[in-house]
Specification:
CATH topology of the largest domain in chain B: Cytochrome Bc1 Complex, Chain D, domain 2
Low-confidence stretches of chain A: 1-20
Order of helices and strands of chain B: HHEHHHHHHH
Structural class of chain B: mainly alpha
Number of helices of chain B: 9
CATH superfamily of chain A: Cytochrome c-like domain
Helix content of chain B: 40-55%
Number of strands of chain A: 8
Oligomer: heterodimer
Number of helices of chain A: 11
Largest interface: A-B, 61 and 60 residues
Structural class of chain A: mainly alpha
Radius of gyration of chain B: 23 Å
Helix content of chain A: 40-55%
CATH class of the largest domain in chain B: Mainly Alpha
CATH architecture of the largest domain in chain B: Orthogonal Bundle
Chain lengths: 272, 206
């Protein structure tokens, strides 16, 4: 019964795809590829990076301090190459932190800003000015462009973060029974015409998933961070909302980062 | 004597690190971390992370890359088969034009939706259906010509209803949502999607 159904559906698939629809879809995909190529010429993220740099160096908050002494894992004040090596374990906080977690940590500890206030609205809304967090993240990731992703797996907590991130990647839940792997675990899959990276099974896809975020999203007219990317995936997965820079988001970014080991950072990128 | 002690310590260290590698965080430990990392947002509540047995065994299967054992698969499929509710009035097919609308809509059950949002089936996200719609995904098989190829018979109609209501009854770890069982679509919406697939006049069968 089951075999017969399978055979029928296979035959149906073969018959159903007529030359016309293949051609129509082929040219649509080609058009999208051309559009993406044209986008590469000018990336508005450059403006966000510039604002981020100003913010980084500005004395702000109750302590009137800049972020120039922020330790991103390579020593106080070293921004060059730091993003490509995060998430990582920080002894002073005794936890694994992604870039955005560490940024908030520095804003709180160095500048004296209020944590709840800083994290209240990390992502800008449609047509709004980029948030400080978005601008600062754009600046930091630009300082890793061209450098290899090298998310460490030395400390036991870094290893545990990776292991939990992997478990979460395969965790099916919610009313739709979706996991990350539902859409991101097989080569060549699409939602409508949108190609989906196979993050768990294809090295090249996994590399792009980590090295091309943050990105300027043309359709939203905004720069989006990795925390945003994860947040919006979970929305479509019909999960509850991940708390900004919570442990599970850092675990998942650790899983993505380690899977992209050695690939050159290419962010902020520009996407559809 | 000293050497013996050193050897003994070495063995303990090796054993301990092996155990650490083999186990890692347990499912329960990770689930606790996950639950503490999400918050309610509108209609999307944290209790969505309470996994059913089906979600649990299929998550483990994905993580380990091992298919379900025959026993578990058969037990799960039997349980899921028991959830299928066939239409009370015995009418399986509605209006294919309405079915097309359900197939196009990807709305519903996200925290950006609310209780009043009319859920869609989002069929085109994963399947090819009507030939005029070229923006379709490929996570599921093409359903173009569905009724024409399979025949408009009672067995196909009943199977298709069950597959839409709860796909896991036929394929334990299928990626498709349980449109009837999870309350994503109403009985009427499912009838309309059925017509899209199985009405001879539907564009799917042209």
């Amino acid at each position: 019964m089951k075999r017969q159904l399978l055979a029928t559906s296979l035959a149906a698939g073969a018959l159903a795809v007529t030359a016309a629809s293949v051609q129509a879809q082929g040219s649509a995909a080609e058009g999208i590829a051309k559009y993406r190529e044209m986008l590469q010429d000018g990336n508005p993220a450059e403006l966000v990076v510039m604002r981020g740099e100003e913010l980084w160096k500005q004395k702000r908050g109750p302590k009137q301090a800049s972020l120039e002494k922020c330790d991103l894992g390579l020593g106080a004040g070293v921004v060059k190459g730091a993003y490509a090596q995060m998430p990582r374990y920080f002894a002073d906080a005794n936890q694994v932190m992604d870039f955005e977690s560490r940024l908030v940590h520095c804003m709180v500890t160095l500048q004296g800003l209020d944590r709840a206030e800083v994290t209240k609205k990390p992502f800008s809304g449609g047509g709004q000015r980029q948030t400080d967090i978005e601008a600062l993240t754009a600046y930091a990731v630009e300082q890793s462009r061209g450098l290899p992703a090298s998310v460490p797996q030395d400390h036991p907590m870094e290893k545990a973060a990776f292991a939990r991130g992997k478990q979460l990647f395969y965790m099916r839940g919610g009313p739709y029974d979706f996991a990350c792997a539902t859409c991101h675990g097989v080569d060549g899959q699409r939602i409508r015409l949108q190609d989906l990276p196979n993050i768990s099974g294809n090295k090249q896809d996994a590399e792009r998933a980590f090295t091309t975020w943050p990105a300027y999203r043309v359709s939203q007219g905004a720069l989006r961070t990795m925390q945003w990317r994860i947040n919006d995936c979970f929305r479509q997965q019909r999960f509850p909302e991940p708390i900004y820079i919570s442990t599970s988001t850092v675990d998942l970014i650790t899983f993505l980062g380690v899977n992209a080991k050695g690939a050159k950072m290419d962010a902020p990128a520009i996407k559809r | 004597m000293t050497r013996k002690i050193v050897l003994g310590l070495g063995a303990i260290v090796v054993l301990a690190s092996c155990a650490g590698l083999a186990t890692g965080p347990s499912h329960e430990e990770t689930l606790k971390v996950v639950k503490g990392s999400f918050k309610d947002h509108g209609i999307a509540k944290v209790d969505r992370l309470d996994q059913t047995e089906l979600q649990r065994v299929c998550s483990d299967s994905g993580l380990t890359g091992k298919a379900l054992s025959k026993d578990v698969r058969e037990r799960v499929e039997k349980q899921q088969m028991a959830t299928i509710k066939y239409p009370a009035d015995g009418k399986f097919l509605g209006d294919f034009k309405e079915g097309e609308k359900v197939a196009q809509s990807g709305r519903g059950m996200q925290w950006s939706d609310d209780e009043k949002t009319v859920n869609g089936g989002n069929c085109y996200a994963c399947h090819e259906l009507s030939p005029q719609e070229i923006s379709f995904g490929n996570i599921g098989p093409s359903l173009k010509g569905y009724g024409k190829l399979r025949g408009y018979n009672d067995a196909t109609i009943k199977y298709t209803w069950g597959k839409i209501w709860n796909t896991h009854a036929y394929n334990a770890c299928s990626q498709m949502p349980r449109f009837g069982d999870a309350g994503i679509l109403t009985e009427k919406q499912i009838k309309d999607v059925m017509a899209l697939l199985l009405d001879p006049n539907s564009p799917v069968n042209k």
